[in-house]
Amino acid sequence: MSQLPVEKLVRIGMSEYEAKAYLALLGDSPVTGYQLAKSSGVPRSMIYEVMGKLVARGAAMTLPTGSSTKYAAIPADEFLDQLQQEHEALIGSLREPLSKLSVVPDLDYVWNLEGLDNVTAKATEMINQAAREIYLALLPDSFPVLKAALEEAIGRGVRVVVYSTDTLDLTGGQVVVAHVSEETLGQAGGLGLILVIDGEEVLVGEWLKDAQARASWTSSPLLVFIAEHHLRTDLYLPQLLAMVGDRGLDFIQEADRELFARALESHIG
Questions:
Q1: Residue 101 covered by a domain
Q2: What CATH number has the domain bearing residue 158?
Q3: What is the structure's pLDDT at 1?
Q4: Is residue 31, in this structure, part of any structural domain at all?
Q5: Could you tell me which of 132, 110, 133, 140 has the C-alpha nearest to residue 122?
Q6: Which end of the chain has fewer CB atoms surrounding its CB within 10 Å, N or C?
């Protein structure tokens, strides 16, 4: 018997014995408790208690036949539909009382995400929730998975500005091409994602090895401001330094020049 259905049934509230009995019953019913114990691997001493719980759950029914009782499974679709309705009703009944108990904590937290699918899903969710403006910095390879969500945001009137190292096909959005050194690209990996929506949330992510990714999300006003400020100003730094030439050294304190080393080496002899 496959372990996967057993594990999933346990996750929705069944015991392991209940899951095994229900799966065996789906494959062969009606049967007596004795027969079901043999086919499911549930101990004979436990089978009737287990079946009582399955009947109470609405996963099985009893069929009295003369001197013995047989059990039959409720069809899987019917049982799962019933279970889904019960869970949805329960969750719905909890929303109002729990909302009344909830107090917005007076702190800003950072939520760390692991895995490419999770990072992409969170970025897509944020883009879908944006109401006014989106600022996004990413490398061209990461653009296709977010393109549809960005186009939909543009369609509903959201201002979208994307910073990347090459031109991107984003009709209705503003694409800013930022020239970045090969060394910086190497450090950024493949994702190099910074996403700010409505000045309220920021997601910062990066690729890891083996197509994995990790990211951090926060709604901290300070961190959101820093990320948006970076997107809207720092990426223009190389071009600005190129325009002012050697005079850029006059505006940068000697102690701070290391921070601008790459841009200075590229544009100020």
A1: no
A2: 3.30.870.10
A3: 47
A4: yes
A5: 110
A6: C
**What is the pLDDT at residue 155?**
95
Q: Would you state the pLDDT for residue 231? A: 78
Tokens 């930022």, residue located: 178
**16 in Cβ contact with 41 (< 8 Å):** no
- Does pTM surpass 0.85? no
Q: Which residues of 44-73 are buried (b: 16+ CB within 10 A; e: fewer)?
A: eeebeebbeebeebebbeeeeeeeeebbeb
Question: What's the domain count of the chain?
Answer: 2
Which CATH number does the domain housing residue 69 bear?
Answer: 1.10.10.10
Say if residue 105 is exposed, middle or buried (CB neighbours under 10 Å; 0-12, 13-18, 19+). Answer: exposed
Query: What is the mean pLDDT for each group of 10 consecutive residues in the chain (269 residues)?
Result: 75 91 92 92 93 93 85 93 91 87 68 88 94 90 90 95 88 82 53 86 79 85 87 69 68 66 48
Provide the residue range defining the domain that includes 63: 3-77
In a domain, 38, yes or no: yes
Residue 195, sorted as left (phi over 0), alpha (psi -120 to 50) or beta, turns out to be: beta
Distance in angstroms (rounded) separating the CA atoms of residues 259 and 73? 69
Helices then strands, counting H and E runs in the chain, come out as 12, 10
Residue 134 tokens, joined: 């989106």
